[in-house]
What does this fold into?
Amino acid sequence: MEPVESIDYMHDVEPAPGRLELVRRFVNTVDYEHGREVLHSTERLKALLVELGLIDSGTRVMEANLECALELREGLRRLALANNGGAADTILEAELVVRIDGRDGVLEPPRHTADGALADLVGIVYTAMADGTWSRLKACRRDVCQWLFYDRSRNRSAVWCQMAVCGNRTKTKAYRDRRAWRKPS
It folds into this structure.
């Protein structure tokens, strides 16, 4: 993978609601189709987590955090693929505290650590599952893409990150495959 500072793909789309956008941006840090990787070093992971507001600039990020972040990113991608018809065989683990006052509760990750930032992402997913927004965060079905997008369609039927790109390429390939199969030898 080519190390890059950012990936400019679908940067002009409407963001996912609330903190779910942080999960979408975190997972969309690798471009499999073009071989580009944003999370190629602890410095890049730190810069991303600071940019997402999950840690402050004084937080220390170690190699073990990078390994956990890459594992978490792929687990989140698999869960988003499950929202789009894929298998749901992923377990996410994080240390979170549930703080409950008299009226409601809130998940709190350990503060000011890279581990806490990653736990915060897991907490966001859990909260989105509870409030019903998680099922709309999907990974593109095109096997070389798998870019996360928020499905805003009325009937929750979107399957590609962009119909004009991945949808068109998938449908064109299927058409060509059907034509090749039907041609007599």
